[in-house]
């Protein structure tokens, strides 16, 4: 309780650090906030060209929305994963990026990675707002599902923050962490059904059946990936325009709470030694 009180007392510092990150991102640029759309749009164009027109991957049409547009289907999964990846990688480097502040002034160090969640989340809200407009133009009836979309965005932010807290500590003690995580994030994206539908995994899973003579299939192992659940919920809400699968939504909440609690515990135990380790 004492630690939480200390964190709450640092809320003004958290707000100031978040605003500093937001204002400094696109300072003195002509297009400003529009630059946050460049990476996801460029990725969308490349993946759409390769997977929709060359490899000809065909995800199922939205049910019951009826949408059948690969680029929109792709963005519904790509934007959440991009947010997750950015929060984890930027939050991981937040302590090392503020060495002078950490060594000279005492404050709740947890505000440094949390400020990254806020600044990246600000960009994500802008990107998701543009996606909602595109969905409406394409004929999706997305408005009733926006409250649940916001709840799911919050759960993903909590999940990403928990991982960022753990990795921020690891990165202080083992500087190679940031390079390993960068590679892992690339692999993680391809192990998540973002640019291909999960039905392709299910088909291969059915082909091989149970592994090692058990009832456990490739699909069962594949779905342990928490980001698979988050992407599924976002697509059910935004692309399909329907209630999310209760199991998927519940597992998102469990993953978010569990990882954040572990991250908070790890960060709290290591916080006092961070200045010396730097």
From TrEMBL:
High-level lineage: Bacteria, Bacillati, Actinomycetota, Actinomycetes, Micrococcales
Xref: InterPro entries: ABC2_TM, ABC2_TM_bact-type, ABC_2_transport
Pfam families: ABC2_membrane
Domain (ABC transmembrane type-2): residue spans on this chain: 31-270
Keyword check for Iron-sulfur: no
Signal peptide: none
Sorted UniProt keywords: Antibiotic resistance, Capsule biogenesis/degradation, Cell membrane, Membrane, Sugar transport, Transmembrane, Transmembrane helix, Transport
Segments passing through the bilayer: 34-55, 67-85, 124-143, 149-172, 179-198, 248-267
Protein family: Belongs to the ABC-2 integral membrane protein family.
GO biological process, one term: response to antibiotic
Locations listed in the record: Cell membrane
A GO molecular-function descriptor: ABC-type transporter activity
PROSITE patterns in the cross-refs: ABC_TM2 (PS51012)
Protein name: Transport permease protein
Membrane topology per record: Multi-pass membrane protein
GO CC annotation: ATP-binding cassette (ABC) transporter complex
Superkingdom: Bacteria
